[in-house]
From TrEMBL:
Organism: Prymnesium parvum
SUPFAM superfamilies, sorted: Phosphoglycerate mutase-like (SSF53254)
A Pfam family: His_Phos_1
Protein name, per record: Phosphoglycerate mutase
Signal keyword on record: yes
InterPro entries for the chain: His_Pase_superF_clade-1, His_PPase_superfam
Amino acid sequence: MTLMRLPVLALLALAQPCLASTPLRQRYFALRHGQSLANIEGVISSNPEIATVEHGLSEKGWLEAEAAALAVVREAIASGSGVAICCSDFRRARQTALAVRAGALAAGVRVWPEDGVHEETGLRERYFGDFDGKGDEGYHAVWAEDALDADHEKFNVESVSNVCRRAYEVVEKVDSQLGSERWIVILVAHGDVLQILQTRFNNISPSRHRELEHLPTATLRELCHASQ
C-alpha cells in the first residue's frame, strides 16, 4: 500500500505526568506494528519527517499484520463487539492498522471509522533524539536513564512522562468519541509507546516500563486498569 505524505505536526508537547481519569467505557488492546524495514536495518526510526513516509512493513511484517487481524476478528466475534482501529500515523503502524481493518471487513465485523483508520499523532513512536536514525543499541542507553527518572530528556529524547500523557490522552479522546456502543479498540502503535502506555493502565510509574513483559511485533494484548 502507498501512504500519502501527511503534514508534520509538532513533534513533542510539554512533559506532564500521567493523571488519573474517569473510567473507560470500551475495552482497549495494544497492537505493536508488524516487523518493519527499520527493524530489519536495525535503526531507530522516530522522526515523523521520515517515518510517516518510509520504513513501512517488511514482507514478514505484512504476514504478521494479517495474522494479528485474525486475532482481532476472533476477539470481536467472541465479545459481540465492533472493531475501532486507532493508529500512529507512522507508515509501519498505519499499514498494520489497514491490514487489521481489511481482515475485520472480510469477516463481516463492523469497523470504526467507516472510511478508514483513525490516525493519532499521540500514538507516534517516542522521539529518540540523538539516537534517531542510528543503531537500535541506543535504546538501552535511554532505558537505563528511564528507570532513574521518568522526566529525563537526556540525549534529547522525549521523556516517558510525556509519552504516557499523550498516549493516554488518545485513549480518553477515543473513548468519548465512541460513546456507549460496544467496541474493542485496537491501538496500533510502537514498542516503547505501548510499553509506556501499559504503565498507566497498571497504575505504576512510567519509569518502570521496561519491567513489563515485552510486547512482540503484531501481538495483541488487552490493556486493563489495575483496579479492574
